[in-house]
Design brief:
Helices cover 31% and strands 9% of the residues. With 444 residues, the protein is of the alpha/beta class. The chain has a domain of 304 residues: Alkaline Phosphatase, subunit A (3-Layer(aba) Sandwich). The strands form 2 sheets. A 7-stranded mixed sheet has the order 1-4-9-5-6-7-8, sandwiched between helices. Strand 7 and strand 8 form a beta hairpin. Helix 5 crosses helix 7. The protein starts with 13 loop residues before the first strand and ends in a 16-residue tail after the last helix.
């Protein structure tokens, strides 16, 4: 069951320049297997393209014709949409809090801090509204999925006449993927028996890696790849979903851009943190404890955050703190030493979950050796599925080159597209000097 969500979004969307380090490829001719066309987007899905070839009594006199594949307009950006669960408005340093989130600070410095995002104060409804741009009741999520009822607006069923952003972008030629929490699948359809039309892969997302429901044990989650349950933590003590999510996202982007580096992508990245349970790794807990962020207690912390937010301009300069609710919560100096120790520890663990969530996407750039040394089972599974032999690479490359209609599009499946990793780490890196490091030498 999901806890109430107060401020779900720390970073709403990051538009990253489209991948395209190679020289511009020749445009395949109309009617060829590799032919493409942008669409206006006024009608989705677009109307079928009429057959443009010629059919005669025999093949020699006939002309084949493949309908063009829909592609986004030239220069369409990659899009990374990140949502942090149960993130308090004054938690991260990006919005005046004391928890250091330098990766998000860097993004805010390049863009905007929005101050009037309205959530629905619940997980499923806010998520339904965010990924569709519609009122949550019109999407069937007046309440969280586990509390759905058989009434319009509350049945946790998204009707087919309302599309997610994943569906819209996929129909416009994007690759689409969803990593992390899925709290928009009806509870009564959240089994491996399906039906799966209300799962991410049925809502416009080509790929899903994450868990279904309001929360999950980050050490042993109910984890799915698309609609298949997977158990990468078995036999791997210390496996953690926050790290594994970043691994899988990087591997997925390498894979799709190795096949078509010109196709932009949309990634919906939705970690379980900082929703309960808070399961950061021990090294992250130590990092937070060593910072002594909360030793002065919540009264002093409240004043500090309030002053920071005024300085950032995310609250009005004329704002006044509400009176302290003495009848509901003791002031810090009224607590015993044991109580203070307990609450500091709880805040430290929360801060770890908050820090590890965005920082997990930066660790490759900052500390590649440790990242490469700790591969997860999910990556090993993906490698077995996608690490082809030299002969297989040649056959696949030849087939795909023919399909694209030009030998100049021959795919170098032995080469890794560096731009993919750059897209992820550009969003999340912190404390770097701009150096690029290899993400996975085994895919060279």
């Amino acid at each position: 069951m999901s806890h109430r969500t107060r401020a779900l979004i720390t970073a709403a969307a990051l538009f990253v320049s489209a991948i395209g380090a190679n020289a511009q490829q020749p445009t395949p001719p109309a009617g060829s297997p590799g032919a493409t066309k942008p669409i206006s987007g006024q009608q989705l899905p677009p109307l079928p393209t009429p057959f443009g070839g010629k059919i005669e009594r025999n093949a020699a006199e006939s002309t084949p014709y493949w309908a063009p594949r829909v592609v986004p307009p030239k220069g369409a950006p990659n899009v990374l949409l990140v949502m942090i669960d149960d993130e308090g408005y004054g938690a991260s340093s990006t919005f005046g809090g004391v928890i250091p989130t330098p990766a998000l600070d860097r993004i805010a410095a390049m863009g905007l801090r929005y101050t009037q995002f309205h959530s629905t104060a619940l997980c499923s409804p806010t998520r339904a509204a965010l990924i569709t741009g519609r009122n949550h009741h019109s999407m069937g999520f007046g309440v969280v999925a586990e509390q759905s009822t058989g009434y319009p607006g509350y049945n946790s069923l998204m009707s087919r006449d309302k599309a997610t952003i994943g569906k819209i972008l996929r129909d416009n030629g994007y690759s689409t993927s969803w990593f992390g929490k899925d709290h928009n699948t009806p509870e009564f359809q959240a089994s491996q028996a399906g039906p799966f039309d209300q799962w991410p892969t049925g809502m416009g997302f080509d790929y899903f890696y994450g868990f279904v429901g309001g929360d999950a044990n980050q050490w042993q989650p109910n984890l799915f790849r698309n609609t298949t349950a997977i158990y990468p933590y078995q036999g791997h003590p210390g496996w953690n979903l926050m790290t594994a999510m970043a691994d899988d996202a990087i591997e997925y982007l390498h894979r799709i851009t190795a096949i078509n580096s010109q196709q932009p992508f949309f990634v919906y990245y939705v970690p379980g943190a900082t929703h309960a349970p808070h399961h950061p790794t021990p090294e992250w807990i130590k990092k937070a404890s060593d910072l002594h962020l909360f030793d002065k207690g919540w009264n002093a912390l409240r004043d500090t955050i309030f002053a920071n937010q005024k300085r950032f301009g995310v609250i009005p300069a004329s704002a006044q703190l509400t009176p302290w609710p003495d009848s509901l919560l003791k002031r810090w100096d009224k607590l015993t030493a044991e109580e203070q120790k307990l609450f500091v520890r709880q805040a430290d663990v929360y801060a770890c979950a908050q820090r590890q969530t965005p920082m997990s996407r930066a660790r490759r750039r900052r500390n590649p050796e440790s990242g490469l040394a700790r591969r997860t089972t999910s990556r090993e599974e993906a490698r077995r599925d996608h690490d082809w032999s030299p002969r297989q690479r040649k056959l696949i490359a030849a087939a795909l080159s023919a399909r694209l209609g030009s030998q100049s599009n021959r795919l170098r499946l032995t080469a890794r597209r560096d731009q993919t990793a750059s897209t992820i780490t550009t969003f999340a890196r912190s404390g770097t000097n701009g150096e690029r490091t290899d993400v996975d030498d085994r895919h060279r």
